[in-house]
Amino acid sequence: MSLAIFDLDNTLLAGDSDHAWGEFLCEKGIVDVEEYRRANDYFYQQYKNGGLDIYEFLDFALRPLAEHSREELDQLHQQFMAEKIEAMMLPKAAELLQNHRDNGDYLLIITATNHFVTGPIAEKLGVDAILATDPEEKDGEYTGKVAGTPCFQEGKVTRLNAWLESSNHSLEGSYFYSDSHNDLPLLELVSNPVAVNPDDILAAHADSLLWPVLDLR
């Protein structure tokens, strides 16, 4: 059994679930539309540029979770899945997951997007486990703060190493699929790095190192 690791946004999905959740909140009038959309777009551009301050972003992105009950949030997320995520599902991504499943591999999503947004998506994709940025909880409700190490850039390596220590898995023969140069620290760690519909920086890096490049779109 090999460990098959997958980024989520713009890799297994044809879009970014974090940004889409922000858009969804705007469309439902749950946040101040003009202010929130401007910030949401700003942080997404910073992410793509490789200059995102993850803690500044999480202070913004997790705040709405603290302003609503878990029951309200779960209802909203069901709508979000139907209205936003369904359209992002990629048949070729499903085939890739199934190929690894058929090979007996262990399927792990590792994503910077918070677990509230991504947990149900990972469940729908049928993977074995997910590592995501964890929103802090107290008494069953979200506080609007982050818990532990954000699952972003080098933080993905930190979180994965901690997970490996507590599991019976190793990186021997491992795969990691990602679209983003933000994931280079982890791509350079696995046995089989694969660029998926890569951004320009990752595409150049993959080309220079002769990494495989996949098109799941």
Annotation keywords:
de novo design (two linked rop proteins); alpha/beta; 11 helices; Rossmann fold; 217 residues
How would you sum up this structure, described in words?
By secondary structure, the protein is of the alpha/beta class. It has two domains: 3-13 and 90-214, Rossmann fold; 17-86, SG protein - dephosphorylation function (de novo design (two linked rop proteins)), CATH 1.20.1440. Helix content is 51%, strand content 19%. It has eleven helices and seven strands. It has helices at 8-12, 17-27, 33-49, 54-61, 63-66, 70-85, 91-102, 115-125, 154-165, 184-187, 200-209, and strands at 3-6, 106-114, 129-138, 141-147, 175-178, 192-196, 213-214. A hairpin with a 2-residue loop joins strand 3 (129-138) and strand 4. Helix 2 (17-27) runs antiparallel to helix 3. The chain is globular. The protein starts with a strand and ends with a strand. The mean pLDDT is 97.
Integer count of domains: 2
Cα distance, first to last residue?
27 Å
The CATH topology name of the largest domain reads Rossmann fold
User: How many E-type strands?
Assistant: 7
User: What about the largest sheet?
Assistant: 7 strands, mixed
CATH architecture of the largest domain: 3-Layer(aba) Sandwich
- Shape type: globular
CATH superfamily of the largest domain: HAD superfamily/HAD-like
So what's the CATH class of the largest domain?
Alpha Beta
Major sheet: order of its strands? Answer: 4-3-2-1-5-6-7
Calculate Rg over CA atoms: 17 Å
Estimate what percentage of residues fall within beta strands.
Answer: 15-25%
Mean pLDDT: 97
Number of helices: 11
Give the low-confidence spans. none
State the secondary-structure class: alpha/beta
Portion of residues within helices = 40-55%
The helix-strand sequence is EHHHHHHHEHEEHEHEHE
